[in-house]
Amino acid sequence: MTTVVVGAGIIGTAIAHDLQKRGRQVVLVDRDAPGRGASFGNMASIAVTEFMPSSRPSVWKQIPGWMLDPEGPVRVRPSYMPKLVPWFLRFIAASRPTRLEELEAQGAALCSRALDDTLDLLRETGLSDQISEEGCLSLYADEGEFKADREHIEILERFGFPHEVIGRQAIKALEPELSDRIGMAVLFPQNRSMKDPYKLVLALAERFVALGGRIETGEVAGFVRGEGIREVVLKDGRKLAASEVVICAGAYSAKLAKELGEPIPLETERGYHTQIMAPGITMKHSIIWPAKAFMVTPTAGGIRVGGTVEMAGLDAAPDYGRAKVTVKRAKEALPALRCEEFTEWMGHRPALPDTVPILSASAKTKGLFYATGHGHLGLTYAATTARLMGELITGAKPAVDLHPYRVNRF
Ligand SMILES: Cc1cc2nc3c(=O)[nH]c(=O)nc-3n(C[C@H](O)[C@H](O)[C@H](O)COP(=O)(O)OP(=O)(O)OC[C@H]3O[C@@H](n4cnc5c(N)ncnc54)[C@H](O)[C@@H]3O)c2cc1C
Predict the structure, then answer these.
(1) Ligand 1: which of 252, 260, 372 to mutate, most ligand atoms within 8 Å of CB?
(2) How many domains, in total, are found in the chain?
(3) What pLDDT band is residue 105 in, cutting at 50, 70 and 90?
(4) Is the pTM of this model over 0.85?
């Protein structure tokens, strides 16, 4: 009985590892080496407080204004707009008040266990030293900015996520490099960060192989199905026999789901990072500044600055101007930040219009499963996703009711 996991990002690798541990014989297949997709360069944050649906009216009502601002946090490339219409209509449909309440609860159900599941996975794999002890600071210049983010804090209060509002002196004591412009902050102690999210994928892949799992390099081009799933067909003609297949191809999962007759409305929300090797400052906490829409994370290789959403599809060339805008904004919070030795990167967040991922058995094909659409929270959700998918696939009762995350909900 072979389970083929398609896609060796953080999601596929964590699932492959979990299933191998549960006694399945697993083949993890990727067209590239493990961890070279979105999981390579994300902002490294176990961001358990960031599950709010992006379809909240308070967010999407700002989109027209952002679109007119070339440095705004969301950009849609004009040539891509027509292709985005069906996704955007579903995004608007996900903004009904009753639907928003459901989506908040569904995000909270995953996030409320995400840190514990991550810590368990790290402990079990000998990687406990890869996560920070410190949390994340959400920054506000003044009371007005804080009030604008009040809805976020209220949702967290409703679901019992710990946080602490602190003033200028306490902020300075925690992060002396922060500008005096920052008048208030909220400390989220559970939002830890990984030293290097790419190395986490590599370490999990290594452990998966040590447990007897196999990694194949090849592009998945199709599938052979009979009564259930039978084979995974690679572009070079090779075929991998499979009694179970799990689709975890990140933003590319939509192509495979369509091939399997189960289309999903998955888009790419492209994001950028700048990894600054010699930033001239040190930090302990990650920071976000909601009004300026950027994040800074201390990582093993210096300081990582990132954020922004760009809707331009899977094939358009990166626009590194987006990365430069986030660095400019970060310097407003961290005046001594230098950006001299750096690399820039763009990655594809797999984004569903209602923000919550698909964690599901196929509604059409026996033995076929999907774990995709983790959007801005793939690293955060990885350990929880792996556990829940491991339970689902091996017939155990998943620790969270997975009905809301089904593939045919759209
Ligand atoms: C700028 C940025 C910042 C982010 N910050 C955070 C953060 O701080 N915290 C957080 O939790 N999340 C964050 N995210 C989101 C997170 O990175 C993603 O949700 C996560 O990496 C998705 O993982 P994945 O395994 O689904 O996809 P990927 O990592 O993209 O992996 C998919 C894999 O599938 C393979 N593949 C695709 N098609 C095929 C095919 N046909 N055949 C074979 N292989 C195929 C690809 O090669 C790739 O390796 C961020 C994302 C970005 C872009």
Answers:
(1) 252
(2) 1
(3) very high
(4) yes
